[in-house]
Amino acid sequence: MRVIDDTGQQLGIMPPQQALTIARGKGLDLVEIAATATPPVCRIMDFGRYQYQEQKRARSAKKHQKIIEVKEIKFRPKVDEHDYNFKKKHIERFLAEGDKVKATIFFRGREMAHPEIGRRILERLIEELADVAIAETAPRQEGNQMHTILSQRAGRKSAPKRETAETE
What we know:
- It is built from four helices and nine strands.
- By secondary structure, it is α+β, with helices and mostly antiparallel strands.
- It has two domains: 2-50, Ubiquitin-like (UB roll); 70-152, Translation initiation factor 3 (IF-3), C-terminal domain (Translation Initiation Factor IF3).
- The strands form two sheets. Strands 5, 6, 7, 8 and 9 form a five-stranded mixed sheet that branches. A four-stranded mixed sheet has the order 2-1-4-3.
- The radius of gyration is 29 Å and the shape is rod-shaped.
- It starts with a strand and ends in a 16-residue tail after the last strand.
- The mean pLDDT is 87.
């Protein structure tokens, strides 16, 4: 096997027992790096320290990730103007926080005979939010619901998520 020292220098090709003796002499571990190579490549290193650094790197990468949630706002075909505007403001707030929004029209009974009413509401919503949002999907009907997904328009900065204060 080809052996690489803890400083990164190649020690050459040697039998596994000899490489293990060198590693133990330095108080380190012999770790197989490339098993499929010919000959296999091993490195003399402190494996516990290596694992710790990998975990630290993974935690750091996870900390800097942004988790995007999909919030859902439900409308009815007979939605009142005030309710529509109230829910539209909620959608704007969710988009500003960096989340995606699923706007849903829920049909019941005879309302199913007029899906164009729901489509008009969703198209109006998309049109009025055009400066802050883009529609990822066109309004489409699935069963007794019609929905579209809105996301923040590119180039806009999302506001930091608000932390809820704990009450004592």
